[in-house]
């Protein structure tokens, strides 16, 4: 727990960037303290009062927000060097000055806005969806075992916020690793009674370049995941499936 703010002033140092091709720079702000403030409320105050610590008028900071309840994932950013959600990070829990930066794993659009398209491209690569026959009513789906349903519910909490990619040492400009979040998604779709029919195809896609072989099991992702998703057990589960899939491919599914 950070020490209580005594002078009723919040000090922030925010890394800014005018556009994707500009060099980042830092700008300091001092704003009035209010109890129960989160990072979003601090950014909103600066947007309404765009004056930096030196008293100079400045351009309002750009960032994204939507749900404000840790569901949409778009307010992910580095706060005191830790990737987290700005909506659920309270000022009272932070050491000052509070340092805010965009997550550098992703291309910066402007200031704290990042482009997370790569995450959705990764989900497309591993076919992270449940195929159906059409848009018409095909009746009730197959029932799931209760234990499997509870496990699947935990996996389904992922909201592609991207903080696990920011924390992972294997996600960088020298690697094409898709990131830790893909493991739970592959496991989730393969556990579904309908999705498991395409599990082999899904595993094959994840065994390609940028797939599961890029993980070094550092477990940084588990430490920062805001939803507590069982990523480590998902990594082990998907690796087992990949081993079985390799045997099937080598010997032929008819002989396995």
Automatic annotation (TrEMBL):
4Fe-4S ferredoxin-type domain location: 149-177
InterPro entries, A to Z: 2Fe-2S_ferredoxin-like_sf, 4Fe4S_Fe-S-bd, 4Fe4S_Fe_S_CS, Beta-grasp_dom_sf, Helical_ferredxn, SDH/FRD_Iron-Sulfur, Succ_DH/fum_Rdtase_Fe-S, Succ_DH/fum_Rdtase_N
First-tier enzyme category under EC: oxidoreductase
SUPFAM superfamilies attached to this UniProt entry: 2Fe-2S ferredoxin-like, alpha-helical ferredoxin
Entry annotated with the keyword Metal-binding: yes
Pfam family, one: Fer2_3
GO molecular function, one term: metal ion binding
Keyword Metal-binding attached: yes
This enzyme's EC code(s): 1.3.5.1
Swiss-Prot/TrEMBL keywords: 2Fe-2S, 3Fe-4S, 4Fe-4S, Iron, Iron-sulfur, Metal-binding, Oxidoreductase, Tricarboxylic acid cycle
Domain of life per record: Bacteria
Cofactor: [4Fe-4S] cluster; [2Fe-2S] cluster; [3Fe-4S] cluster
Family: Belongs to the succinate dehydrogenase/fumarate reductase iron-sulfur protein family.
The protein's name in its UniProt record: succinate dehydrogenase
Species name: Lentibacillus kapialis
């Amino acid at each position: 727990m950070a020490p209580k703010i005594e002078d009723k002033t919040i000090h922030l140092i925010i890394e800014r960037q005018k556009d994707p091709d500009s060099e980042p720079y830092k700008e300091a702000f001092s704003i009035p303290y209010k109890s129960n403030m989160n990072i979003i409320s601090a950014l909103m105050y600066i947007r309404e009062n765009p004056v930096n610590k030196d008293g100079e008028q400045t351009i309002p900071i750009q960032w994204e927000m939507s749900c404000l309840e840790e569901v949409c994932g778009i307010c992910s950013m580095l706060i005191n060097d830790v990737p987290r959600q700005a909506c659920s990070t309270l000022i009272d829990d932070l050491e000052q000055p509070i340092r805010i930066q965009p997550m550098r794993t992703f291309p910066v659009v402007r200031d704290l806005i990042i482009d997370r398209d790569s995450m959705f491209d990764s989900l497309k690569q591993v076919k992270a969806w449940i195929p159906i026959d059409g848009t018409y009513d095909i009746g009730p789906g197959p029932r799931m075992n209760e234990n499997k349903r509870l496990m699947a519910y935990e996996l389904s909490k992922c909201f592609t916020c991207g903080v696990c990619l920011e924390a992972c040492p294997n996600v960088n400009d020298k690697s094409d690793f898709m990131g830790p979040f893909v493991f739970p998604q592959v496991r989730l779709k393969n556990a579904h009674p309908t999705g498991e029919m395409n599990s082999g195809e899904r595993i094959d896609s994840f065994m390609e370049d940028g797939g599961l072989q890029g993980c070094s099991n550092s477990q940084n992702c588990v430490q920062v995941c805001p939803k507590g998703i069982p990523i480590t057990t998902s990594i082990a589960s998907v690796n087992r499936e990949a081993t079985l899939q390799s045997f099937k491919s080598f010997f032929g599914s008819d002989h396995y």
